[in-house]
Amino acid sequence: MTDFAATKALFHLPDGIVYLDGNSLGPLPRAAAARVSQTVTDEWGEMLITGWNKAGWMALPMALGDRIGRLIGAEPGHVVTGDTLSIKVYQALASALAMRPDRRVILSDTGNFPSDLYITQGLVKMLGDGYELRLVAPEEVAEAITDDIAVTLLTEVDYRTGRKHDMAALTAKAHAVGALAIWDLAHSAGAIEVDVAGAGADFAVGCTYKYLNGGPGAPAFIYVAPRHADQAPPALSGWLGHAAPFAFDLDYRAGAGIERMRVGTPPILQMRALDCALDIWDSVDMAALRARSIELSERFIAGVEAACPTLTLASPRDPQNRGSQVSFRFDQGYAAMQALIDRGLIGDFRAPDIMRFGFTPLYLDEADIDRAIEIIADVIDNALWDQPQYMERKAVT
Amino acid sequence: MTDFAATKALFHLPDGIVYLDGNSLGPLPRAAAARVSQTVTDEWGEMLITGWNKAGWMALPMALGDRIGRLIGAEPGHVVTGDTLSIKVYQALASALAMRPDRRVILSDTGNFPSDLYITQGLVKMLGDGYELRLVAPEEVAEAITDDIAVTLLTEVDYRTGRKHDMAALTAKAHAVGALAIWDLAHSAGAIEVDVAGAGADFAVGCTYKYLNGGPGAPAFIYVAPRHADQAPPALSGWLGHAAPFAFDLDYRAGAGIERMRVGTPPILQMRALDCALDIWDSVDMAALRARSIELSERFIAGVEAACPTLTLASPRDPQNRGSQVSFRFDQGYAAMQALIDRGLIGDFRAPDIMRFGFTPLYLDEADIDRAIEIIADVIDNALWDQPQYMERKAVT
């Protein structure tokens, strides 16, 4: 029901490249170059300040939020875009803690993306007063949800291994002890079927430059469950979250519902690029995407394991327990990844030894997967990674 | 020493428009369209994830920060760009409060931009524990700096009237009572001569889409004085402010100096547009800019006052006490501004009765000012604003 050959044609992919890193930065939707250009030239250039009304800039954060909302199973009107994911984590967490003033413990796991933990540590330090970040191993989360927990802050899909938490079960457990559940969907939105409403999530946050293909530095998003939307304090209470931003009152009054999670002036050029990317998503059925993702990743695992016995699967073997990435452990993973990139296969490396490959059915097919397996087999089996130029670490890996 | 005819040629200005709203959104630098296009097509499109290293994306927040630093008198290496101004206000304020743990009062004034006050109110509420935002009239700030003040949070130039605080004097007063001084430079950076180092400012923040011409939603900037840079806690402690972001440690360690004020993934398309705008600023001498700004605004005031006795100057008459804008009060200011815009003169309106005009020597000259005066005289003296279509309020004004 989704035509993946048709979606593939809507992306620009450089010649000779197999791109298994859409889980870090999605590729360019072909239409984005013209759309961004038009925004710069015809809107900024010609409309100047009047673009906020005439070109609809001011409405973009909510409009884009709603289109993302469909992909994560949110109720219409309850997602807004803006800022970065780290900022949105902070906003969700501070808001949730204010809603559970009698508790002091934030529960997360050691597989969470470090920025979520760093942001939490900063907030805990600022709040003082007995606040605590409690970290357990990912497989111990369920039993660690005890009745002193204020908030669970979990990333559904592990950025290194692709291991997937059971969002519905953990959320139910959190609610059973009176805690609130925040879900980070960085590796879920556009990667797998997500149903934040069905799972009962209280807050969800995510980024749009990975599976959603919004471009480098594309804005983040935040979801607040309708039952909380008019009560949740926004924490970062900026003017565009005010009930009447252009009244310029001296006192803050939170806007209605999710609008209050807006903070400052939205990044219009980034939002237009994201807008283009979401045009493609509008045609995608998420169940079909998930089925195709599993098909491609199973083919990849089978091929790599057959060809390279020295690589160890770091991801769950059962695709139901994985997101849309596959990781292998290899002691010389950093150098090996450089060697792969040099040969046209782009994946990425995560310390200490994870070689990570993302599966993105919108623009990958069997031929890409088979070519990837060939290149990996060549690099690993012939130790092509064992070259000084592949050992040297770059700033961003 | 700065050739303002030459800088004017570097901007695209729509035909038939006199643009006196560069204090809200600067116009398009001609080079920006191609630069942003190239970033989209050649960098995002061709380099994909490797753009973070190959195209230098990861270094942009600091590189742009340094170029802004020169315009505000900052020491090299002590300004970084990112996020929005409201977020940077929060970061500076939370950081400053943590550095004065024995005090609870934040001093600001009723002329401050409301978002700064909203952000402060949100933080005060979150911190609880006796924290307080104390608001006084702008002219009472100096005497209100008493020894219970933890932090002064002031915008140098009033967004409505253009009234300019004495940054050096108020900072000295704050320091004399043991307080820290945060300066919001939203209407200063690129508008007037600023010397944060000379004035002894502890923190400064600002936006880049007004006088700096970075485009709609361009990133903000933050300055931390070198004496604090390695001690100031970043408050929003995201991964790109970590000492080693790509080590993916579980514990936050603040990066060196201003780098710790980075939070999440930078908006690359916006940063490239800003990069282009700063190319123009590299050729500008700030003393020459200030002299030219005063020359143009004095010409404007004289012309408008001679032609329109019903308008009342809302800005300080002495140009030394003004930023680079001129405001007039007029009961029907909203409708009058719509009528001006309809006739090709773009300024803006700020409640309740302020008609606001920005002076930006990079792309305005005497002919523009004289044409503006003509249009204003026509609209006001002939009551052309008295039409139903000019009364209807738009979302963004």
TrEMBL record, chains A, B:
Residue positions, PTM N6-(pyridoxal phosphate)lysine: K210
Uppermost EC category: hydrolase
EC number per UniProt: 3.7.1.3
Positions of pyridoxal 5'-phosphate binding: L85, S86, F113, P114, S115, D116, T155, D184, H187, Y209, W239, T265
Pfam family for this entry, one: KYNU_C
Function: Catalyzes the cleavage of L-kynurenine (L-Kyn) and L-3-hydroxykynurenine (L-3OHKyn) into anthranilic acid (AA) and 3-hydroxyanthranilic acid (3-OHAA), respectively.
Name used for this protein in its record: Kynureninase
Originating gene: kynU
